[in-house]
Amino acid sequence: MSSFEKIKLQLRAFSEARDWDQFHSPKNLAMALVVEAAELAEHFQWLTEAKSAALNTDKLAAVAEEIADIQIFLVRLADKLDIDLDKAIARKMELNEHRYPVEKARGNARKYTEFDDGD
Amino acid sequence: MSSFEKIKLQLRAFSEARDWDQFHSPKNLAMALVVEAAELAEHFQWLTEAKSAALNTDKLAAVAEEIADIQIFLVRLADKLDIDLDKAIARKMELNEHRYPVEKARGNARKYTEFDDGD
Amino acid sequence: MSSFEKIKLQLRAFSEARDWDQFHSPKNLAMALVVEAAELAEHFQWLTEAKSAALNTDKLAAVAEEIADIQIFLVRLADKLDIDLDKAIARKMELNEHRYPVEKARGNARKYTEFDDGD
Amino acid sequence: MSSFEKIKLQLRAFSEARDWDQFHSPKNLAMALVVEAAELAEHFQWLTEAKSAALNTDKLAAVAEEIADIQIFLVRLADKLDIDLDKAIARKMELNEHRYPVEKARGNARKYTEFDDGD
C-alpha cells in the first residue's frame, strides 16, 4: 500500500473517532494548510539562507513537526476531494519535465510562463 | 520503498539536471511552500464550504495540480533538512493521539492548548 | 500627513533603535507578512462564515492585534521598497474599477480574468 | 479624515455597487488576505535578500500592486469587524515598545517569547 493510502486511512479513523468530519470541508482544510505552511515558514523568516540549512536539533525537531502537520492536512484534503495523491504527483512531475526542459531551465529560477521574456 | 523515498529521488534528479540546488535553501523552499498552499486556497476563498466539496472537473484538476505542487516542495524541503517524512508523520500522529484524546476533542475544533479554557 | 507616512516614520525609529534594519530585507518582510496573515486566518479556519462575523470580545482583540501586525509589516515593506502606499492604493482602486465593471461583476465573485468564461 | 477611513468608505461604495457584501465574511476576507500576501511573497521567493532590495521597474510596479491588494483587503476586513485601524495600530506599537525593549531586542530577531532562552 502507498504511504499516502496508509496515512489516509489512519486520518479517517482519527477524525471519525473525534467527529471532526463536520469541520473538514475542503475550504477549511485548504485554509488550515496555509496556516501550517506559514508556521513552518516562520521558523525561517529572519534567517539567512545559509543559516536555514544549519538548524540546531531543537529547531529541526520543531520544523519536522510542522512538516508533518502539512503532510497530514494535505492527505486529508486529497481524501475529501477524492484525489489520488500518487497519481496527481506523477502527473505533475511529468508536466514539470515538459514545462521546464533542461536547456531552458538550467541554472535559472524563472517560471515556465516567463521563458520567452528577455528579462 | 516508501512513496516519499521514491518522490525524493525523482526530485533530486530533476533538480540536479537543472542546476536548481542553488535556489533550494530550506528558507526558499519554505517560502515556495506557503505560496503553493495559498494558490490552493485561492480556489476556495469565495466558495461556501458546501460548494468547496462539489468542484467541477476542471476545478478539481486544477486543485489536484496545486496539491501535487505542495507535496513536491514538502518532500524536497524534508530532503534538504534530512528529515525522514515517514517517521515525522508517524511521530506527529502519535502526538496528536495524546493531545486530542477522544473524550476532550469529540465534536469540537478547539486547539489542544485551549482545552482547559471555559471558552 | 497621511496615516501611512506617520506609521512609516514611527517604524523607522523603532527599527533603528533596535538595529533591526539588517533583518528587514524586502524578502524577509514579505515572508513575515504572509506569516502574520496566516496567524490572522488561523482565528477563522474552523468557524462558519456566520460565526466569523460574530466574534466574542477576546477573540476580536486578538484579531485586531494580528491586523495591526500585518499593517505594520506592510508599511515597513513599502518603505523599504520606496513605494508610496497612498498612491499605490489609489492606482489599484482605479484599476479595479476598470477590471470589475458593475454590470459584469455584480453579484458574482469571478476574477476579472474569468469574465468571458461561460463557467 | 484618516487614510484608513477614506479607503474604507471607498471600498464600501465599491462593494455595494457590485453586491459583493455576500462574499465578504471575515473568514473569506482573511483567506483572501493570505492569498494576496502569498502573491506578494512569490515575487521574492527565489531572490537573494540583496536582489529583493533591487527590483527592476516592472517588478516594482507588480509588487506595488500586490501591496495595494493586501491593504485593500485589510481595510475591508477591519471594517467588517468594526475594528478601528488607527487605534489598533497605535495600541500594537505601544505593546511592541514594551515587548521589545531596546536593551533586549537590539541586534537580534528573537521573538519576545524567547527572550529568556539561552538559545
Structural overview:
4 copies of one chain form a homotetramer. The first copy, chain A, is mostly helical. The first copy, chain A, is 67% helix and 0% strand. The first copy, chain A, has helices at 3-18, 26-42, 49-52, 57-80, 85-99, 102-105. In chain A, helix 2 runs antiparallel to helix 4 (57-80). The longest helix of chain A is centred in the middle third of the chain and has 24 residues, at 57-80. Chain A is globular, with a radius of gyration of 18 Å. Chain A starts with a helix and ends in a 14-residue tail after the last helix. The model of chain A has no long low-confidence stretch (mean pLDDT 95). Chains in contact: A-B, A-C, A-D, B-C, B-D, C-D. The interface between A and D is small, with 7 and 7 residues.
Task: Kindly summarize this structure in a few lines.
Four copies of one chain form a homotetramer. Chain A has helices spanning 3-18, 26-42, 49-52, 57-80, 85-99, 102-105.
Radius of gyration of chain A: 18 Å
Which structural category fits the helices and strands of chain A? Answer: mainly alpha
Level of helix content of chain A?
55-70%
Low-confidence stretches of chain A: none
Main sheet specs of chain A: none
Quickly count the helices of chain A.
Answer: 6
Quaternary structure of the protein: homotetramer
End-to-end separation of chain A in angstroms reads: 46 Å
Mean pLDDT of chain A comes to 95
Strand segment count of chain A: 0
